[in-house]
Amino acid sequence: MPRYILSLDQGTTSSRAIVFSDQGTIIASGQQEFSQHFPQPGWVEHEPQEIWQTTLSSARQAIAEAGCLASDIAAIGITNQRETTLIWDRNTGEPVYPAIVWQDRRTADQCLALKQQAGLEDKINKKTGLLLDPYFSATKISWILDNVEGARERAERGELAFGTVDSFLLWQLSGGECHATDATNASRTLLFNIHSQQWDDELLETFRVPAALLPQVKDSAADFGNAQSKWLGAEIPVAGIAGDQQAALIGQACFQPGMAKSTYGTGCFMMMNTGNKALHSSHRLLTTVGYRLNGETTYALEGSIFMAGATIQWIRDGLQLICNARETQPLAEQTGYENPVYMVPAFAGLGAPYWDPQAKGAIMGLTRDTGIKEIVTAGLQAVCYQTRDLLEAMAEDGVKPAALRVDGGMVVNAWLVQFLADTLAISIARPQVTETTALGAAFLAGLQVGIFSSLEQLAELWVHEQAFEPSLPEEARERLYQGWIDAVNRVRVDA
């Protein structure tokens, strides 16, 4: 029996594919960056065919580097940037418009208008666990239908299909045979009732989304059809799907209520397992589906930061202060914690717990002796301060985790992780496999095809690499964080 699993990790700035062994170790990988399009201020788009082609090329590269045949792969797992919205023609597979990315803010006015309807946001929050924000898929769908000529009529006739990136990739892999998603991705659309686990007719009417557009919602480990042999060289079952942050929760083996992980990729996302209870946050955190297995839903509480690695990417590409993200650690070591410069990277508004789509980014505390290292360090520190914002909100909701498991590209920076431990005043665990998003998708696919037998077995495969313990005195920690709070308050529009 084939014992390899191929994980397709389609992210915001790159597409990655990793071949995993049946022990959850990385055999080989492939990765390609793709273009970011900013047609207007606040708009962010991707080219759907570039998403597909970079995913396919990365998969072929990973299989080639693993030195295996496609027939050696038991299953494919897919994990994806969530909320990003695509609509395509069911007959041709051609998108009717570019993918509108989760960071896109073009529907801020539409969300504001809906918020002014008495009781509507509260009703939406109770059904979906989400807030009325441009971040989620529903207003992006209605924008495409309203702004692409003939799209709404075609959608109502059943000629078009909507999907988040997982659905689009599945459609392509299966040759249009399978139009489906999983419960984690569905729970990020503002159209899915997380309690009944169904698309909600009332929400569809509110956002003017025809039901005919929608994919079938399945468990996170399920039969999602087969990738056609023409793509990778053999017909391979697609057996697991989860949105990237939920996949990381699984890859970090956070299977018990109270366990939490924080992923540092393009954005930063802290997620805590709350078991079979969908906890309501009083501090503007999101209640979401953590995963759904064998028809049983595990919920999670989530805080979302829009700019984490994207802040460092902006420092690299926008300001051109560095050539590579690896340069950030030595620059921060030179600067130290006592940095008078604060960066508020509200390039796409502020996420949790502020949810201020109108906020703009700023750098504060500049003096004549401010240089590259202080600005770079401020970018790293902003990620840690924003994580504390999320932790404080969880604590006020009564569910502060005692420890945190971290992953994502940024956590290779040991200075960042140590400052995170000092800022949060909790123990931080970094796993041996930091590609936990891809690992979570592999775990799901492996569960479905019988490579893995249980969540308990997956928990045993999680290997701790290093622990970071807090050592900063409380006075210094609070003083630095108060400087952050002051900086955030200066950029908030709704403060």
Automatic annotation (TrEMBL):
Domain Carbohydrate kinase FGGY N-terminal: 4-251
GO-annotated molecular function: glycerol kinase activity
Chain positions recorded as ADP binding sites: T12, R16, T266, G309, G409, N413
Residues that hold ATP according to the record: T12, T13, S14, T266, G309, Q313, G409
Domain Carbohydrate kinase FGGY C-terminal: 261-447
Residues at which glycerol binds: R82, E83, Y135, D244, Q245
Reactions that this protein is recorded to catalyse: glycerol + ATP = sn-glycerol 3-phosphate + ADP + H(+)
Residues annotated to bind sn-glycerol 3-phosphate: T12, R82, E83, Y135, D244
InterPro entries tied to this protein: ATPase_NBD (IPR043129), Carb_kinase_FGGY (IPR000577), Carb_kinase_FGGY_CS (IPR018483), FGGY_C (IPR018485), FGGY_N (IPR018484), Glycerol_kin (IPR005999)
Regulation: Inhibited by fructose 1,6-bisphosphate (FBP).
Enzyme Commission number(s) of this protein: 2.7.1.30
Pfam family name, one: FGGY_N
PROSITE patterns: FGGY_KINASES_1 (PS00933)
UniProtKB keywords: ATP-binding, Glycerol metabolism, Kinase, Nucleotide-binding, Transferase
Role noted for this protein: Key enzyme in the regulation of glycerol uptake and metabolism. Catalyzes the phosphorylation of glycerol to yield sn-glycerol 3-phosphate.
PANTHER family for this protein: GLYCEROL KINASE (PTHR10196:SF78), SUGAR KINASE (PTHR10196)
HAMAP family, per the entry: Glycerol_kin (MF_00186)
Family membership: Belongs to the FGGY kinase family.
Protein's name in the database: Glycerol kinase
Organism: Bacterioplanoides pacificum
